[in-house]
Amino acid sequence: MSDTGALAYRVFSSSIARLISNGARRIMITSSGPGEGKSTIVAKLGENLARSDRLRIAIVDADAFRPTLHKFFQLDHRRGLGDLLGQISKADLNGDSSKQFGIGDWIELIRAQSRTGRLQVSEGSEEFSIIFNKGRVSSVPDRQGQRDFALRAQREGSRPLGGGPSGLGPIEAELDSALQVELDKRLRRMLALAKPQYRFLPAPEAPAPEAGNRPTTASGATGIDRFILGMVGDELNQPYLSRQIPGYLKNTSMANLKVLTCGDLTTDSFYFAEPFVTVIDRLAKCFDAVLIDAPPVAFDTSTSLLAPAIDGVLLVVKADGFDVGVIQRAKDQLLRSGANLLGVALNQVDLPREAAFPYYQGSSREPA
């Protein structure tokens, strides 16, 4: 790489480092079409952030059409993102592996699988329930509420819970302060259990979500679900996910840079977006930043589907590449989806050093 190119990446990574320090820790990098160099930018950006800014970086190859990052880092692409998503979406909630689950694992896996039913948490005489409606927490009832739920489930029979007025009931748009205090007390008592026993009692399945449904995120959740995600989410024990997800990461020559290769990833893997969000959220808790190499916007709807669940999106545009109309449509598609578009990165621009970085001419200092 030329000196000008190396300097360009350092300046670019410094700008991204500032975004990360301001809270944009999950960054998706995409393009309007193939061949615009987004994967190279993801790899080089990850290296520069890990080296110059000494950040802990996880790179995720989510481009099922043209997985590239394993070649850049000379890694085996097998056992990657697609395999991990499959494991999460198919985890047996009442099988032997569930004995490894902590309360956080249960909530994340039920959310990832969009399940409806009741999670029973007990120890001795203490017993709690968390009611889920299509993966979202709709209530944490007291004992009377648990009895009401059981009776209602029995009355409903084969009718999907949450499908009508006699289902799980409306999820409150906001929790009043009294309810927040009561809910917090129940959750704290539940978290204080030394050796809790868990059992998930599924309710009749609600209709499967259609392709294009948005994943549930902290910003998109409401009421009790938002409270649990925002107030106690970091305190929820996740021994199973804590062990499983890092096992899929691959090492690079830099100790603070890890790669989650594409693996057995297909376009159908994102039909349900929740497992992907679970993985990215978990990585964001372990690393300073997660960089996601996403499919081109014009070729795959999954990028627009997942973008609203990410902190920000960078759109890579190759100089003298696609027609401006194609680029504009890609940008508009991202914005319509609710994505936070951080900016557009113009790639492969052939400019002399003097024109590219006039500010730094005459100075031996590296960009801050």
TrEMBL record:
It comes from the Bacteria. Signal peptide: none annotated. Keywords: Kinase, Transferase. GO terms for molecular function: kinase activity. This is CpsD/CapB family tyrosine-protein kinase. It comes from Eiseniibacteriota bacterium. The lineage of its organism: Bacteria, Candidatus Eiseniibacteriota.
